[in-house]
Amino acid sequence: MKGDIGVVGLAVMGQNLILNMNDHGFKVVAHNRTAAKVDQFLEGPAKDTNIVGAYSLQEMVEKLETPRKVMLMVRAGDVVDSFIEQLIPLLDKGDIIIDGGNTNYPDTNRRVAYLREKGIHFIGTGVSGGEEGARFGPSIMPGGSPEAWEAVKPILQGISAKTDKGEPCCDWVGNDGAGHFVKMVHNGIEYGDMQLICEAYQFMQDGLGMSADDMQKVFADWNTTELDSYLVEITADILKYRDEDGAPLVDKILDTAGQKGTGKWTGINALDLGIPLTLISESVFSRCLSSMKDQRVAAEKLFGKTVQPVEGDQQEWVDALRQALLASKIISYAQGFMLMREASNQNGWDLNYGNVALMWRGGCIIRSAFLGNIRDAFENDAEIAFLGSDPYFKAILENCLGAWRKVAAKSLEVGIPMPCTTSALSFLDGYTTARLPANLLQAQRDYFGAHTYERLDRERGEFFHTNWTGTGGDTASTTYDV
Ligand code: NBP
After folding, report:
1. Are the beta carbons of 122 and 144 closer than 8 angstroms?
2. What does the record give as the active site (predicted)?
3. Is 118 in the pocket of ligand 1 (CB under 6 A)?
4. Which of the residues 27, 63, 69, 183 is marked catalytic?
5. Which fold has domain 5-172?
6. How far is the CA of 417 from the centre of ligand 1 (A)?
7. Core-most of 169, 272, 349, 403, by most CB within 10 Å?
């Protein structure tokens, strides 16, 4: 019997996805550039399974049922292009290549078009959930050549996570790079969620003087509220973990954050598309700032920086923090969905936002109860421009507003940096303000660069230039938006 799918790449993601496919009754042919890893896999985790090995791409392709499906689980970038070039002469028209790595979506756009010319279908799919997700059910976000979906659907939906109701956390996202775009936004949201949790942690630790044990109880408790999520749950676990000497391990970890680029790409896309994705962008910059450890240590000394203790009832502050975190999180998701809507409009992807929320409901790092409510919001109104306008989320934002302002103000007063929590509040304040000071800004632009302005007392689209100093000319600059 021939194989249902070939998987190239036997690192952590590839091996676990293959074992997951095997559990679901699919016959997998496994290949890796370094052949020794094929043997190690077959003699190790894949022993006594139906998984077969292949020591070359040719051998793998020969062992596959047609149309052949080859999934690449290798390092994103040139490595994917290199495998595609090697596979093209081995594959026939109608065969399918799937890239399951963390690829930047313009690369997927390019590869779909390139392979279409050769009659080969290409799917670029986000896979989230890390090692455990890959093994027992990840969130899978496929996009690319729609003709290929029916052929790969049973495998990808079969191995994906399922919601409580048994729905697969995997569905067709859209054409070209849509799947990788949605995965990129997922990772951006993950950056934001993590930073928000870290800000609440720092407020509790530095402002309220709470111990790791105290904070562990708080996060465990929050996980029984609307904040019920994987990231809050693992935060409680992390705070509980003790080093060999019995002290909390988290306190001994160097405070410089790593990053692999997906948060940065999300921010870059937001700037390109003109979407105010403030929270995720702040979370990326927070990681950048954290990595300037030596400079921070020197600057703390130079400025004699200290954090004033936060006075008042600790339990009240903890509850205010919970509300600030929840409200900020709503803003982050609202901004993320704004970004996806704009990308969908510009690329003609026709994204189904309720389905995106469903795909993130289980299996992935941002999985949470909250995503079920987001799905409901888009089912009620698929065109909702701002998630915070949905009645469920609007009520939460309104209820949390007082506590959120209190936390933001106190953090600024005592010197605890909370860039995501405070910028989310500023976003809501800006979004709900009918008249912003951009009238003055337009006047400044017109003053120094003859960039023109529109007037409140005239039709939109009519542009004016004023000779503000009496010495400028009457010639206006060309009007265009970037
Ligand atoms: P890695 O990203 O570490 O990639 C390892 C694989 O790439 C191995 O098969 C390795 O072959 C192959 N490879 C490399 Br590296 N350079 C190569 C080259 N020049 N030519 C041929 N093959 C090469 O593995 P991973 O962590 O399992 O991730 C796989 C993909 O999934 C990545 O795109 C990653 O971003 C994405 N992803 C990872 C996670 C996660 O939690 N780790 C989660 C979600 C998505 P070799 O054995 O011969 O060196």
Report:
1. yes
2. 183, 190
3. no
4. 183
5. Rossmann fold (3.40.50)
6. 35
7. 169
Q: Tell me if 191 is assigned to a ligand binding site.
A: yes
CATH of domain 437-481: 1.20.5.320
Considering 37, 63, 190, 282, which one is annotated as catalytic? 190
User: Where are the chain's structural domains?
Assistant: 5-172, 183-432, 437-481
Q: What distance in angstroms lies between residue 161's CA and the mean position of ligand 1's atoms? A: 22
Integer-rounded Cα Rg, in Å, for the chain is: 25
Indicate if 217 belongs to the active site: no
pLDDT in tens, 180-222: 999 999 999 999 999 999 999 999 999 999 999 999 999 999 9
CA–CA gap between residue 327 and residue 424 (Å, rounded): 8
CA angle, residues 55, 61, 66, in degrees to nearest 5 = 155
Q: Say whether pLDDT at 306 is over 80.
A: yes
Predicted confidence at residue 175, as pLDDT, reads 95
90 contacts 118 by C-beta, under 8 angstroms:
no
Question: What is the three-class DSSP state of 100?
Answer: coil
Give pLDDT, residue 342: 97
Alpha helix ranges (H) inside 25-104? 36-43, 57-62, 78-87
Task: State if residue 15 touches ligand 1 by the CB under 6 angstroms criterion.
Answer: no
Mutate to test the pocket of ligand 1, among 8, 15, 31, 75 (most ligand atoms within 8 A of CB): 75
Average pLDDT of the segment spanning 248-261: 95
Give percent above pLDDT 90 in the chain.
96
> Is 472 close to ligand 1, i.e. is its CB under 6 Å away?
no
Q: What pLDDT does 296 receive?
A: 98
Q: Answer yes or no: 190 catalytic.
A: yes
Q: pLDDT digit string (tens) for 322-367? A: 999 999 999 999 999 999 999 999 999 999 999 999 999 999 999 9
Is residue 87 part of an annotated ligand binding site? no
